[in-house]
# Entry
Amino acid sequence: MPPTDTVPTKSARRDEADTARTAGARRAGAPDAAGEPLLLRAYRGEPLERVPVWFMRQAGRCLPEYRAVRRRANLFEICRAPELAAEVTLQPVRRLDVDAAILFSDITLPLAAIGVELEIVPGVGPVIANPIRSTADLRRLRSFEPEEDAPYVAEAVRLLVAELDRPLIGFAGGPFTLASYLIEGRPSKTHALTRKMMYGEPLLWRRLLDALADVALASLRSQIAAGAQVAQVFESWAGALDPDSYRRFVLPSARRIFSGIAELGVPRIHFGVGAGELLEPLAQAGADVIGVDWRVPLDRARARIGEGIPVQGNLDPAVCLAPWQVVRERVDAVLQCGGGVGHVFNLGHGVLPETPPDTLRRIVEHVREHSPRLCEARNARAVQPDARAAQPNA
Ligand code: CP3
# Structure
């Protein structure tokens, strides 16, 4: 589908959704009879007619239309202009026809909004002028009041939900990941200073992590109040920790985030990279869904976190750089492993900037075309457990 100038209006899309329902409800975001989008049903583990699909970091540098906007404004300037933020959020929805939009923002934006001197340096990532390494430094970190400190975020969310015919995903950075940027002052491979504080100054660490959990919580509550229908916590760098340390030093703060938005009733996703050994404690933080990176097959992830918890993932983002034949095989393998229920197709981490957008579009089409068979077979097995027992080869 070529990019178009506008996403169709809600009423036009309602007609479309009606047509789609008769055509097997395979279009993006197609709600069921109760008006519930496919994505939300998948996050609840309900039976599906096909597997929904979106991509982490789907907006951004792999899209020429994003690069065109970026020539006029830097990352934070885009985030602070609701119309621009809404525009770049919609770009991948139009071009790729994914089942969800994810708000265009950054996990470090709330930190910048409360006065942390922070710059996204091209080719490096978030760089912080005065890292937090002592109790005195921590005093500089004040609480985050989204409606006052960053009103443009909720405004972008409101613009988007008025426009979109599919769910909008809100997000925040996990406490360990934000702490790592604040302590190291820049992206780190080892997270050595971060772990040094964690082990060496546990009281300071606890205060920092609780403060960051409160930043994430305030941010998510505000996005949800403005209309975001899903909340994802990107605890991207948690994989630097062993399970016991994660449990001791991070899990209590993560719990604070998930329990703080529990009553709002939106699906809550917890995602970490290189976090295979942490899947159980990540799930214990209270999320409804676990995002799995590409290193752990989805069936093995499920065996670790419990069969009842839906999973999201987990195609290796680098596969998208390979020829289509290879991509297709790998997509099929992920779908197969996901089993056609309690699965939302995604990459195992963000889209790489060098990804051809056309490959992403073909993946969406492929999932849409090929997952219904898998879902049908799965649904048939679910309603006929006796028949399955009688035919061991079925
Ligand atoms: O569609 C989308 O997902 C885009 C919205 C989005 C951005 N950042 C915009 C962005 C999201 C969901 C994020 C999350 C984010 N930011 C994470 C968690 C996801 C992950 O990849 O693990 C992390 C760790 C960050 C911190 C961050 N921001 C880094 C490490 C970088 C530089 C590296 C990179 O990928 O470019 C950024 C900058 C950034 N955030 C860009 C975008 C589109 C690219 C820079 C630019 O356009 O100027």
User: Anything to note?
Assistant: Residues 357-383 form the longest helix (27 residues).
